Amino acid sequence: MREAAEFKQHGRATINDIARIAKVSKKTVSRVINDSPLVKPRTREVVKAIIAELGYTPDPQARALALRRSFLVGLVYDNPSPQYVVNMQRGILDALEETDFQLVLRPVSRADANYPGRLKQFIQQHKPFGLILPPSVSEDDELVQMFRDNDVDYVRIASGMLDEPSRMILTHDSEGAAQAARHLCALGHTDIAHIHGPESFRSAHERRDGFRRGLAEAGVSLNPELTIEAGYTFDSGLQAMERLLYGKRRPTAVFAGNDEMATGAYVAVRKAGLRIPEDVSIVGFDDTPIAGRLWPALTTVRLPIREMGKAAARLLLDQAAGKEPEEVISFTPEIVVRESSAAAPRKAG
Question: How far apart, in whole angstroms, are the C-alpha atoms of residue 64 and residue 139?
Fold first, then answer.
């Protein structure tokens, strides 16, 4: 380390200096700084020792200048579920911890015809290093093409395989919904309702199709009269459940397309003087923190949202470290059985 010690007396170290002293490439030094797994343990040890000896700290501005981008990772979302967005944020921040990258939130409304233009202005002004796109923004192929045209890296989060190939986090929502159907059928339910999300969300279609498939496996059909579109929100879930309870055929079980709507359904059932799960079983989707705090605790399909956010950010960080990231990372949902689902009530007579 004598050369390193001598250097300290003469000025601020650069990556070039570290590479020269360690007798490795600049790319290897960058990989060590970014904790890339592609560096051999012995090489990592030597480079880190030299970095410590020189008191080197990466200069974010210099690195950003080299990339001609800022050190911002954008989360672009149009999702009515606040808890989904919060969990996604937490996962991204987990991955960005101890890096120079910062998270910036960019909510949009796909109902706004000019939202692609606003996003284009955003990326031209702020030059984010990369973007993370959860549903339903991830399903907009024209928007994704605009990101490509502006040379912005992105990772899409999708409920099912998208037509346009790209790096994505794939969640297999259809299988998760099928698990919910199998669970309710195993409990003896046949009058089963489904409160699904907006038709504009692919996840709503994936979950409905998977739920229908799971019911069919048990010889149960999804009654159109017991299928209601809602908005992935608490209020829309409450209103949809009220319609079901006061309809011609009251269900004994309900599968809500997310936990927000399931929570609204809880309130509607209680307002009607009914009990959960003795009179009506309820199953949600996502397994957000509210699911375990409800009384009785909500049976739901767990979608590891925080882990998904972390994995998406990791794909972008791998790109920054010069590593060739995986194209698709899959997460398989699983049902978490709690107290809101029970055997179907016996029919009178």
Answer: 29
